[in-house]
Amino acid sequence: MNRKQMLKDLLVADPAVEAPPVELRPADAGGRRIPSGAVRAMGIDLSRLQDEAKRAEVLERESRNGQAVLEIDPASVDPSFAEDRIARTSDADYRRLVESMSASGQQVPILLRPHPEAAGRYQVAYGHRRLAAAAELSIAVRAIIRPLTDAELVIAQGKENAERRNLSFIERAMFAAELEARGFDRATLHAALAAHPAEMTRYLAVARAIPRWLVRAIGPAPRAGRPRWMAMAEFAAADGALDPVVGITETEDFRAAPSDTRFSMVYAALQCRSEAAAEPAAAVSPIRDGMSFIHIEELDSGTRFTILKSAPAGLSGYLLGRLRDLVTEFQAEQAAPKRPVE
Fold first, then answer.
1. Distance CA 217, CA 308 (A)
2. Where are the beta strands (DSSP E) in the chain?
3. What is the C-alpha to C-alpha distance for residues 266 and 244, in angstroms, rounded to an integer?
4. Which residues does the UniProt record annotate as the domain ParB-like N-terminal (predicted)?
5. What residue segments make up the domains of the chain, in order of their start?
6. pLDDT per residue over 107-150, tens digit each?
7. CA separation (Å) from 142 to 107, 109, 135?
């Protein structure tokens, strides 16, 4: 393509309009016209502009089709409306992700859609942790932008989680319950979690039995597994079963423990209460010496206290909740000056 046609393509909107003539030097001895230095430079610039215009067209087309990887300001991106992880940025895997992106950059792009309610903003389909890491590092996040319906967004969100980092059982259960609460049909739920109908029924049953505040307090508990979560759901369904658990979740020891340990603490309290409630009422006498419910065993490494199954319902949870206060009272008594014996 000659420069005249390039100039027409770039600068003339109407192809019927003739482009301005290009002044050339007189012909050389062989009859060829030799362009001046300025004209030659203009030809190079016109070629570069045309190449850039073509690249811009391709980029725009790929962006519309969800093929181009773009760099987006994390501040312009909002999370998905459906929460899938209980703790997105509080585990060791997230810290490793931040370190990896700091050293090597973001290797895998995230998926965004244009925000359906806020012009100029985006919404995450998947890649929340990479988005958070990019924001923490103050760098742009590499993303593919694709127009998605709500159903397409949650299906993409669920499939990416299944392929890259499996959610724990309780995270999948809570994700399913949130999608159901937002009105998605079972077909969408099955597609988003890649779950068969029987498994979906288990997810929803557990999510309904265990309150969200307790799930958030425990965390994802990746090692707990489906059978123990289902057993906990049965324990929690009994009237008043969660009363002793509240005190446990408010202790510093509970909050400082790993997620799987927090699960075990709650599970043990609920199991103890369930077993005590299943015993005949006559088996537990309200006038028994309180220490008869506790077994004390001296070990080489210390002293072990065991709450027996015959203990009144809620005793273990109450003692766990009071343990820190008792230790503080003991230390205060030890530190108090001793009165002389008269």
1. 26
2. 69-72, 77-78, 110-114, 122-126, 141-145, 294-299, 302-307
3. 9
4. 70-162
5. 3-63, 210-331
6. 889 999 999 998 999 999 888 889 999 999 999 999 999 999 99
7. 9, 5, 12
